[in-house]
UniProtKB/TrEMBL annotation:
Residues 26-193, 213-370 form the Glycosyl transferase family domain. It comes from the Bacteria. Keywords: Transferase. This is Glycosyltransferase involved in cell wall bisynthesis. One of its GO terms (molecular function) is glycosyltransferase activity. The lineage of its organism: Bacteria, Pseudomonadati, Pseudomonadota, Betaproteobacteria, Nitrosomonadales.
Length: 408
């Protein structure tokens, strides 16, 4: 089967699927992405380029949409050239958020299109209106949010099938679209992300080597920003450190924001929060280590005695599931996407997102728990991931979806 991946940043969310398809040796795989082209063993990579730059005087509300149209136009141009060279896929697998499939059916109207439906924005009940500290309920903000869904609505219409990684993310989409969306996670490599009692994490510049013998509290996000509750976590630290004099805190993530703007007057949310609470944080016990290499990141999760995860009602991070697979005890905010995985007292402990006192109490409750209780919750969490979200299980589900659509 000829499979064409379309994703501006391939492999991204398609990495596990692509690796699995390469391993089978049964398929001809091609990825279309924005430059620069990256090597991916077993997958041919082609790039597309915008045919022109965005106009400087475009209406402010149309700037993001114009970029999506330009991207869709560039993809259509690239696939037309592929078509003239004799290439036609059996199925297209794409992430539609950035406009890449806007015009794909005008080139290949009968080719099966399967889309990754990651998230559908709403002004109510999701990330947009969740945090009163950063709420943008202006007309412009609401209008911009509405336009974000335009390409996704069009993709829902033209796609032959699709999937979302969690039940909650599927539920963000209109009910009329649910029949077109299966729930299939990208999957976690549970052979790699697994408990290791001998794990250690070395902080060379401080001459500190953390192991399972230490009281290690961890926090991880792609970026240190409000959507992942970084501000709430940082405000809880002075009290937490005062009450746990032997605890070490390891904070992992990029300093630059991913899902929103930087704070006014500061270069990053880390800088802002350190200006707010930094004077009360002991640098010998609070370790901001940046975005770690995979092996180091795993080691931190394996030595964790309490992994704190917060998120707005938004796309769920892989890091929560990876922490669960590593046997890190989970202390998490009681927001919608998390409650699909963390059942309070069974696979972790939950606290109110905005309540730093609850956060501190939940972490201390976890740190003081008896070992048999810790084992009970961490193994229940690990079993959930290993049984239902292991990479092989999820990828086989995706492959089944692709093959069933290509045979229709």
């Amino acid at each position: 089967m000829r499979i064409l991946f379309i994703h501006q940043n391939f492999p991204a969310q398609f990495r596990n699927l692509a690796k699995y398809l390469v391993a089978t040796g049964k398929h001809e795989l091609l990825a279309l992405k924005q430059p620069p082209s990256a090597e991916f063993d077993g997958v041919g990579v082609a790039s597309y380029k915008f045919l022109r730059n965005p106009e400087p005087n475009t209406h402010p509300l149309l700037k993001e949409m114009e970029t999506k149209v330009l991207r869709g136009e560039a993809v259509a141009d690239a696939v037309r050239r592929l078509k003239t060279k004799g290439y036609t896929p059996d199925v297209i697998v794409a992430h539609p958020s950035w406009g890449e499939v806007l015009f794909i059916k005008d080139v290949w109207p009968k080719i099966k299109l399967i889309c990754y439906f990651e998230y559908y924005y709403s002004a109510v009940g999701q990330d947009f209106d969740f945090d009163p500290e950063f709420r943008e309920s202006t007309f412009t903000g609401l209008a911009r949010l509405r336009l974000k869904n335009t390409t996704m609505q069009q993709a829902l219409e033209i796609a032959d099938a699709g999937w979302a990684p969690t039940n909650w993310q599927k539920k963000t989409f209109p009910k009329w679209a649910h029949s077109k969306i299966d729930v299939i996670h990208e999957g976690i490599d549970t052979d790699y992300f697994r408990p290791n009692a001998q794990a250690s994490f070395n902080i060379a510049n401080k001459h500190i080597n953390l192991t399972r013998q230490h009281e290690v509290i961890t926090y991880a996000a792609r970026a240190l920003e409000p959507v992942r509750g970084f501000h709430v976590f940082m405000r809880a630290l002075p009290d937490l450190l005062a009450r746990r004099p032997n605890a070490h805190v390891v904070i992992m993530g990029h300093e630059k924001a991913s899902y929103g703007p930087e704070p006014g007057g500061n270069s990053s949310w880390l800088e802002k929060m350190l200006s707010e609470v930094g004077a009360d944080l002991d640098p010998e016990r609070v370790h901001v280590v940046g975005f770690l290499a995979k092996e180091q990141y795993r080691a931190v999760m394996q030595v964790s005695k309490a992994h704190v995860y917060l998120t707005y009602p938004f796309i769920l991070s892989w890091s929560l599931l990876e922490a669960m697979a590593c046997g890190a005890p989970i202390v998490a905010s009681n927001t919608a996407p998390i409650k699909e995985f963390i059942k309070d007292g069974k696979t972790g402990f939950l606290f109110d997102f905005f309540n730093t006192t609850e956060l501190v109490e939940a972490v201390i409750k976890q740190l003081d728990a008896k070992q048999n209780r810790i084992d009970e919750t961490t193994w229940a969490a690990r079993d959930l991931i290993a049984n239902d979200f292991a990479q092989t299980v999820c990828v086989e589900g995706l492959l089944k979806l692709i093959e069933s659509e290509s045979n229709h």
